[in-house]
Amino acid sequence: MAKTKSVFVCQNCGAESAKWIGKCYSCGEWNSYVEQVIGKESKSSGLSIEYEKQFPQKITEITSQKDSRISTNINELDRILGGGIVPGSMILIGGEPGIGKSTLALQVALKLNHIKTLYISGEESPQQIKMRAERIKIKNENCFILGETLLENILVHTQNVKPDILIIDSIQTLYSDKLESSAGTVSQIRETAAILLKFAKTTHTPVFLIGHITKEGTLAGPKVLEHIVDTVLQFEGDHNNMYRILRTTKNRFGSTDELGIFEMNNEGLREVTNPSEILITQTEESLSGTSIASTINGVRPLLIEIQALVSSAAYGTPQRSSTGFDNRRLGMLLAVLEKRAGFRLSQKDVFINVAGGIKVDDPAIDLAVIASVLSSNLDISIGKNMCFAAEVGLTGEIRPVNRIEQRISEAEKLGFTKMFISRYNSKGLDLGKFKIEIIKVGKVDELFRALFKKSAE
Ligand code: TYD
Ligand code: MG
């Protein structure tokens, strides 16, 4: 009898080791090694997907493909994909369970009514999917549903149906009978994804993979998958909030940091086309501790509300806590305020919240964070007509940010009449075309004087 061979595989990053180890040498995760039998694993998967013969070619002789992207008929999704689906690409939609990945994927499958789509679910029965489709209320004759988890069977069905787009829900339920390990383990995920990638590249069929990722990112596979696929879309949002954010974290065919916003309602996901309006609280009076930042995500400007609460520390050690903003960055900004502008904040609790549960990675929100903190500390509100866009440096200087014109015109479009930017941001900037009043500041204390001087006197 053949001896069974086994290896230990890190369930976080896919690193392998001949014996069990407590801490992964590759990703540093603890207790993530699981034994997997590889006895039956064959080098080649033996599947009947034919490779096109490839020879080295001169780059000048390679015929470039025309940009024949497929529109998903969902504008937000097209935009974050970089203008639609690229034929033969593999797109991973990751997110926590219950966030809406299956809903989005089914909506894509149903909306693409001009081409054939095959939606394969290992999680729900075709009847359950039908019920979901009824909620979404889109009829489509060209959408095929299959409940299957064995990869070899799936490939047979794809040969029969010949879909123009294949959707797999989810990669963690898929398994290949070439491997002995169970579905969802790193070796199964790596193998099945690699075969699907081969399928995508040889048949030029785009493949959507759905992958579960827990908050800690501990579930098997995501890191392994990120290397294999062309595009990674991350679905975020909390269950209490109806807004969902779809973010591109990797894209071989477009820019990353793109962000699409959807609203989950009774009929599935609805695109939010004017997100700035929903992200800004519509209150009658102006409240202290809030200000608006003009941010850029990918190619799109987005105005978001930054809320701060500064209060005397209830316990000995002051708390610093933020939602949607980096805590260390908050610590740094508070230190700058303390050291460079003389504000006594070291005995205060400071809380920051980015409204709408959005996480934005744009240094231009620094100025709005500082403005909100100062406003809450003084309990004096900032006019509702003002917004901010600048980075703050360690010396208290207010630094320029990229694409300032786009930020200004978005603010103007939304009816703001005053905008604070860095003094050093005006190079090549033609302010003549804007009606909005631009206030240039160079240091944190200048911002303070400009905002609160009249009230403080
Ligand atoms: P689902 O797509 O199943 O999440 P995932 O595949 O990421 O696990 O969607 C989960 C939630 O969405 C579920 O709690 C129900 C809700 N939902 C709606 O609110 N409206 C709808 O029309 C649909 C289809 C789902
Ligand atoms: Mg699902």
Describe the structure.
The chain has 457 residues and is of the alpha/beta class. The protein folds into three domains: 6-37; 75-273, Rossmann fold (3-Layer(aba) Sandwich); 278-456, Ribosomal Protein S5, domain 2. Helices cover 26% and strands 25% of the residues. A hairpin with a 7-residue loop joins β10 (243-251) and β11 (259-265). The chain is globular, with a radius of gyration of 26 Å. It starts with 5 loop residues before the first strand and ends with a helix. The site of magnesium ion (MG) has 4 residues, from α2.
CATH class wording of the largest domain = Alpha Beta
Largest sheet: spatial strand order: 6-5-7-8-4-9-10-11-12
- Tally the beta strands: 21
Shape: globular
Largest sheet entry? 9 strands, mixed
Low-pLDDT runs of 5+ residues are: 40-48
Task: Note the quaternary state here.
Answer: single chain
Query: What is the CATH architecture term of the largest domain?
Result: 3-Layer(aba) Sandwich
- Total of DSSP H or I helical runs spanning 4+ residues: 11
Whole-number radius of gyration? Answer: 26 Å
Please estimate the helix content. 25-40%
Mean pLDDT over the residues: 86
Question: Which key terms come to mind for this protein?
Answer:
alpha/beta, Rossmann fold, Ribosomal Protein S5, domain 2, 26% helix, binds magnesium ion
